[in-house]
Amino acid sequence: LAQVDKLLDAIVDAELARGRIGKPFVDTYRALLPATAYMETCWRQFEIKHGRIDTVQSPVGSVGIMQVNKHVWRGIYDLNALLSDVGYNARAGNEILVHYLVDYAIKRGEHQKTGNPDDLARATYAVYNGGPGHLARYRKADTKPALRRIDEAFFDKYQAVKRDGKEAVKACYGR
Hints:
Elements: H1 2-18, H2 26-41, E1 46-49, E2 52-55, E3 62-63, E4 68-69, H3 79-84, H4 86-106, H5 110-114, H6 119-130, H7 145-164
């Protein structure tokens, strides 16, 4: 956990140095990246499957620590690197996450719709999880129960990361 925490912190610091994320949104972003990796894979790039070490993969083709979808993002990211390199996968997932945060959640004022700046994280994750059409699903009454549970689970993890940092992820491992 300490190594992944350092990796994610370095990615956050590099992203903030690029200046794409405005000062009012820095605290939200600082928790958003690690919370997303926590939600997606409990900060794991690899797992043991059938007695072998393999990349964490979802049934729909998402891979690695950030569960970057190899079909959606083909041609943008190197598939072999997404599968084998935790740093590459985390940076790719971060680029996608920042795109959704800045160009969707902030631009469309999700934090102003509810008055809660943490709703930027909720909206960003909903897009990361379901695509651009899901931006407001976390606050809509007619959201399907399965998606509502995903959004609530993410928000719980986001709040835990904001409060406890890397210690929150220990919950994945029974600590």
